[in-house]
Amino acid sequence: MDECVETQYSAVFILKPQDSWLDYEIYPVQLPGEKTLPDEFSSYSFRSISHIGFIGSHLMVEHGDASGFSKIELFAPSETSVGKYLGCTVTEWGERTEQNICL
Fold first, then answer.
1. Domain-embedded: residue 68
2. What's the domain range around 16?
3. pTM of the model
4. Is 103 domain-assigned?
5. 28: closest CA among 20, 103, 18, 38?
6. What are the tens digits of pLDDT across the range 71-102?
7. Which backbone phi and psi does 97 adopt, to 5 degrees?
8. Which residue from 18, 11, 29 is spatially nearest to 82, judged by alpha carbons?
9. With 80 as the cut, is the pLDDT of residue 33 above it?
């Protein structure tokens, strides 16, 4: 988490309670990008996060930027605590014209 603060980028973390409910394991949600991530603790940066929620058991993260662009990233439950990345959908294009914006 210190790296997120030092480099000033947005991230999402899953807090998994332990059996005793006194401690938690912390996992970063992995947002994929152009290159393969080196390990399970790495992620590409989310833009400015505007909403986090669940649709059923799927994690939804909406984020965007100052140009008015925003998209929703969707993650499904999986064997890992952070889930499996399913993909994204654009909710507002703003000033953007790129075609491959989910990378």
1. yes
2. 2-92
3. 0.74
4. no
5. 38
6. 998 998 887 766 888 988 888 888 877 666 66
7. -130, 0
8. 29
9. no
CA angle 11, 13, 18 (to 5 degrees): 170
Residue 100 lies in a domain: no
Give the number of domains in the chain. Answer: 1
Is the separation of the CB atoms in 47 and 62 below 8 Å? no
Percentage helix, strand, coil for the chain under 3-state DSSP, each rounded to 5: 5, 40, 50
Burial class (CB in 10 A: 0-12, 13-18, 19+), 17: exposed
Q: What's the CA gap between 95 and 97, in Å, rounded?
A: 7
Tokens of 89: 């959908």
Tracing tokens 């940066």 back to the chain, one arrives at 45
**CA–CA separation, 50 and 61 (whole Å):** 8
Strands 24-28 and 48-55: unpaired
Q: Compute and round to an integer the Cα radius of gyration of the chain.
A: 14
* Residue 32: both structure tokens together: 């994929």
Rounded CA gap, 53 and 59, in Å?
6
